[in-house]
Specification:
With 359 residues, chain A is of the alpha+beta class. Chain A has seven helices and 19 strands. Chain A has one domain: Chorismate synthase AroC (Chorismate synthase, AroC fold). At the A-B interface, strand 1, helix 2, helix 5, strand 12 and helix 6 of A face strand 1, helix 2, helix 5, strand 12 and helix 6 of B.
Chain lengths: 359, 359, 359, 359
């Protein structure tokens, strides 16, 4: 109930606070006998890491991980896999200025009201640092997905009003990591980077959209009527800090289309496979994958922490003026790319395993 | 796993096919000693009912319900409540023309591939008729929510390109049921109705957006980090047939705002309550309700069943031309309003009960 | 949470009261494309049926069932299967004498305290009539288990101090249904029957032990460390009304054995299969089936309802004298045999499906 | 599904192998704002610790623990609590002799068959060392139970044929820790100890029974019909390594009693409280606690590891002779006492929280 676990068969339980001893995850239900890819985990962690470029926070956090259980002789055993990243140099005193303030659009107020008590050090459990554990788990999920030919690629498709004007078919996924904003089009990326730098200089923040494309998902993933594949993906993605919206396939654009335009007509494609002529369904029909690319988008809000004076309340419910200190991301979207991939991987592996029941 | 149950404490298990004997729900975890409001259930069913107006399908389905268990002397007992709606006049022969076709953008293909076998009568379990059970369960949830002062009102805010141009504050919720499209503005409603009628005449279909506003939700509902309130609402809503997108508060519009515009500043409002100056958070911060109105939107695609010739494949994977027979909704959005309310009620009651642990 | 569902992949939700409209079950996660064996269900129901012999209650309850969903053209579809048995001739007035009394060793007191309100008609939800739904679900589980070569046979091995003095190897399972007490040894059965008749004449009741043997379970069922196969079986069996104890393999007898006696030595048996020389493990090692027969026992208490005067409290907490009216079982054990089989089938199918993940 | 988590609201996920880096637990759903009692945890760990007396294994394992998350300023925060115990001096080479053998009555064979691969170091995940994590979680549960007046005391009531001949009422619980076998009667304890020493000298092992008494449990814990309190306790206890049987209240002895003897008559006791005259129900009626002491027993088999030659198979399925090396417990029962208490505490806290829904 307490909501720190996710998944059905591939089940993860995450833990840790921004400034506690460690963050981590226990992964139950991982297939045994799979080579544990240490490099993949580290590579994914590095994409989420703070301080990775001039458009992220300059704060450096150590992101090396340890394996506490579940791996023997380099392979998974079927026992729970526990991975942790230790926090370094926690100095709670650095956060005393947050102790008595309810920061605007943060979860300080709701956490204190719900739990009656709050770990105020860098946001404690509400901090986006929590997503380290998601990335760890996602990397483990990918170890199996890679084996069965499923790839997941997320990228930044919009920052503020700067949009990537390409169809999915036009995108070269190998370009995603070519720039620090993770937009697979250098010209658009440069505009995005310039905007983020400008916003940073203003002490402000900006949001954006991440698009995710999953290739190689076979027909059959999804458990209607409530655990439809896109519904579970939606929950997984909406649970990421700062995410405000999720859409599958045509998404909100479907509203201004007619059925005759929107329907995906079945056909035998040039590879002699069953396919649909268009993919407004985003690869999922009736809640079950149909073999086409799974395509979804997620909206991320501008970071709440800004270096400008804002009115708010303190914990005595008095009006105060507050301005954030320290180093913060002006735009969290590029660093959210590996998190979106991780949550997607977790869902896809879980639903792959659920679907094995029908084999 | 098999995904026909939903919820944690207030847990529902739905069943039934479009043309089986009955549809229904078993509700486990309902509070005992609550007056069972038969009229509320029937009233909600009637809002979902086919044939209710000229812009819905003309097909008449009986929507009277029976209570099989869990209610004694007019009150809930704490035992599982089972409610069913019987289907009438099922004639499978009427559906023989669907037996061997994969209709475009329906789940015929994915169901047959996943389960190896398909109840083709009116779509079987994939039919939107399944949502009868959701409405039944939602009405039961409302019996408690009403008692604790929580109201849920959904309405149609867009059909194709016709938008309701009103802020939440400007809306008179009592107007929702004043017109058959469930848009709380008669002028806009009339335009929507005219458009739907025109689309119907063309044998086509059209989609739209439903906005939902929950008032009276206290601070504290939501179970981070995975079971954030808006993540669970997102899953609940995205699991409804034809839903393609979900957004909370500012949603996708957050992307083009800066942090300094988007942040909801805390203040003491005119009623001497803690409030936020704006509500871009949509009533949820850090995944936990903050006492403000919960506001979200959902996109519904144009119905897949249209009375136009379309290319598709049959179950022998041959190209065929297909045109739907019978009577169908040109626009499902007005009838989806009670379904959105029902799923919202189910989530809110469940999270209310989860939050009682902290009392 | 509310505890009326059971299982992980093969998940059942039961409902209904002793004197409500109907009892039944929704089965989610049943494999599709399985022939639905109507005769098997009816046959199992008949074994549980009251009034089946002179040693059960003389009360006649109708046990014919209806299929509300999930079966199409005689086969399962993968959609939830709903089965119900309607109650007949409920006359709540017949139970007015139970309204204000807390019967000894019944759940009247605990239900009223927990839920604040109680369906007193024949015990409502606490009645053993609830087990009708378990038998319905168990029969469905057996439809798959039969296909994969797993058989489950339970029988009465003790009534009061009359024990069946046979090893598992000596038992002819085809004899179980040869007598009304379901003990596969006519001589012992006759003694048991005579004892039950005598106890019935005294207005008293008597308990007993059921032994269950599962053959054909392959190696690998069980999910350590908490969902060990015998732990789940234990929960399933202990949840049956009147069950007070569960033991696997050697059970409580293991206490007076030494390790050198108790250890099951691995060997290649005469059929050239891996086996253990003895089976004190009861077919489960480390929580996982090892391919040997699964053997467990369950203790059932003497029925609480007796036709003798007993002191107790009424709902105003005053001392009263109470004597049960109506017709009741002097011994519930023979009728519990199909219930034990049903719960075992439900667990075994669920764990079979869970284990498919590793295929 | 993968079975390394347990509980509904108070939910634990355990991890770790006998000779991995660490064992531990993530506890989700702990109440916030509770003083974290470090001494209680260490005290409970010490009761489970190997090498604590002459009748346990002489192997010394370090049992100091670390808190990785969920505790801030000495109090629980409502975030997941992670506790670990690091393993020391793992030398896999010490276990090479186990690599290719299926030890009798161990889980070597079933693990290797199920997972296709086995961590053979000291049994890996199947080792009873896994129970360290259960004790850690149980201690946390007790922090709340102590506050609400619930106490749990387990003790050894039988070793082989040496029984504690006292009623529950005659037991002085403060005597449990007076001797190394944890039997609250010194004379009986001495006999037990002598027997264990003798068995140890023979290179053999012996089993026993643990009785557990829970005082102060209010009326209302338990979620019928499947999650009856004693059914969940049964599962919890049966999931402990070496446990072969569980009985509540009168248990298997109920079989030879008549209803007129077995029924617990309600009365107002000398403290003017509602009580039952006897407690054959073991404090649970209809699956719900009735306010009386909860009393259950569990049977533990003689340890499988003995220092005698035994026939078995190696992993090539050849007959071999095997004799255990190293230091092992001749009797695991005294060390299982804190484990039984821990699992009981975990269940009781979980069901307390579940019951809060009805407040």
């Amino acid at each position: 109930m307490a909501g720190n676990s996710f998944g059905n068969i591939f089940k993860i339980s995450t833990f840790g606070e921004s400034h506690g001893n460690a963050l981590g995850v226990v992964i139950d239900g991982m297939l045994p006998n799979i080579l544990f890819d240490f490099n993949l985990v580290q590579s994914d962690l590095n994409k989420r890491k703070p301080g990775q470029s001039k458009i992220t926070t300059e704060r450096i956090e150590d992101e090396s991980f340890e394996v506490l259980s579940g791996v023997f002789e380099g392979k998974t055993t079927g026992a729970p896999i526990t991975l942790i990243v230790k926090n370094k140099n926690q100095n709670p005193a650095d956060y005393n200025h947050l102790k008595n303030v309810f920061r605007p659009s943060h979860a300080d107020y709701t956490f204190e009201q719900k739990y009656g008590f709050r770990d105020y050090r860098g946001g404690g459990r509400q901090s986006a640092r929590e997503t380290v554990a998601r990335v760890l788990a996602g990397s483990v999920a990918k170890m199996v997905l890679n084996d069965i030919g499923i790839s997941i690629r997320a990228f930044v498709s919009q920052i503020h009003s700067i949009k990537l004007e390409k169809n999915i078919e036009q995108i070269d996924f190998s370009e995603i990591e070519n720039n620090i904003v993770r937009c697979p089009d250098d010209e658009t990326a440069n505009k995005m980077i310039a905007l983020i730098e400008q916003v940073k200089a203003e002490g402000d923040s900006v949001g954006g959209i991440i698009t995710c494309v999953c290739k190689g998902v076979p027909v059959g993933f999804g458990e209607p009527v409530f655990n439809k594949l896109h519904a579970e993906l939606g929950k997984a993605i909406l649970s990421i800090n700062a995410c405000k919206g999720f859409e599958i396939g045509s998404g909100f654009d479907c509203v201004s289309m007619k059925g005759s335009e929107h329907n995906d007509l079945f056909e035998i494609n040039k590879n002699q496979q069953i396919a649909t002529h268009t993919n407004h369904s985003g690869g999922i029909q009736g809640g079950i994958s149909n073999g086409m690319d799974i395509v979804f988008k997620a909206a991320f809000k501008p970071v709440s922490t800004i270096k400008q004076n804002q009115y708010t309340l303190n914990t005595s419910f008095e009006n105060i003026e507050f301005k954030a200190e320290g180093r913060h991301d002006p735009c969290v979207v590029p660093r959210a790319v590996p998190i979106v991939e991780a949550m997607t991987a977790i869902v896809l592996l879980d639903y792959y395993l659920l679907n094995k029941v029908y084999c």
